[in-house]
Amino acid sequence: MRYRFHMSEPTPVTDWTTDYDISDPSYIEDPVPIWREMRQKCPIAHTERLKGSWNPTRFDDIRALAKMVPELSSRAPLVMPPAPDFPEQTLYEQQIAAAPITADPPIHTWTRRMILPAFSPKTVNRYTDYTEELAHSLIDGFIVDGECDAAVDYSQQIPPRVIAHLLGVDPAMADTFVGWVNDLLGEGLLDHEKRMAARDALLGFLGVEVHERVENPKDDLLTEMLHMEPFDENAEITPEVVIGIANLLVIAGIDTTWSSIGSALWHLGTNPDDLARLKAEPDLLPTAVEEFLRYYAPVTMARIADVDVEYGGVKIQQGDKVLMNFPAACHDPEHFEDPDEFIIDRQRNRHVAFGSGIHRCAGSNLARLEMNVALRVWLERIPEFRVSDRDSMKWAGGQVRGPRIMRVSFPAGSPRQ
Ligand code: HEM
Hints:
The chain contains 17 helices and twelve strands. The chain is mainly alpha-helical. A three-stranded antiparallel beta sheet has the order 3-5-8, with helices on one face. A three-stranded antiparallel beta sheet has the order 4-12-9. The longest helix is centred in the middle third of the chain and has 32 residues. Bound molecules: protoporphyrin IX containing FE.
């Protein structure tokens, strides 16, 4: 059994179709050729590593498997197995831990309905000015230096502040959120002590915030959810349900969007032709954002089989984990012309970076808004830049892939007056 939590060197992979490892450094750095090989040789690969899982790499298979509800359950959607001393939870506790992403119907249905109004295009447009001002003020902080870490000083700073603002909690918590999310989904993924400490701290913080609002309602999303009229006969809105949803919004809204902004800057900072094209044609940005999302799709999720399932020639047994490899689906040649090429003005681009099926990302409007604003402001203020130190470049991967250290340089400018 190779299941272990370690930060030491993992055993190198020699066969990606029977022994893959999504935490392998080569997979984290550039998974595209690996998916190509897996798709050609064995489109639903298997590994015994990390307690075992199946890894589909074809668009149609991933879409079909994402539809298999409730056979493939979302109650354990992390790609890594739980820490060995993770406390026992009832099925209900598992489902509300970060609903709706951890829930199957019927709990999924009503918890998703609780948040959808907060993420409609009209509602998220309210955050445009806030995000724009934030982007400018971050750039004011480093533009005179002629260099910065575009992952740490910019991409990573935007989503946690937008989420704190949206939930109605102290924006000064943003840096703490980043630390917790990193320990939960990033560097802490293989370190169970870090993961447990971050989980307890985040849930503890949100517990205090939610319980405060039971007594003293405020004008914010947490209060709105707590005091929502039940709209569905199954809905049982309790403080614990709201804590679980807030937990998800912090986890799902931060790492994902920061990774996508960072990957877009990585691309532009290493591909001068695409940077020049966007400068010349700023109206192309929303189309380019879709290609950034497709090409650098950051999120892989997992399901757990509650019954035996036969699909695509493989026998998935009850208890097996199945990865929802949305990033690999986004590179399937059956669905995308020249999938491994970045085409900045790609017209037909029905990607699944935001997932597929009932769990499709509820925050996609907000994610798109943050990406468009963050990139537009950057290009207005820093139209010439390049990734300056590729050796120090660091990617995170596994559940969410994106740059974590990325030095860039540019002609120094001035802060706004
Ligand atoms: C570029 C940024 C983002 C990407 C690529 C992304 C991707 C995804 C994916 C692939 C799923 C499907 C999960 C599954 O099938 O198990 C998902 C679900 C979800 N995302 Fe996002 N996400 C992003 C940003 C956000 C933001 C900003 C929010 C809100 C703050 C958000 C909230 C959610 C929620 C609530 C779900 C669960 C929906 C459900 O279970 O019904 N996401 N996201």
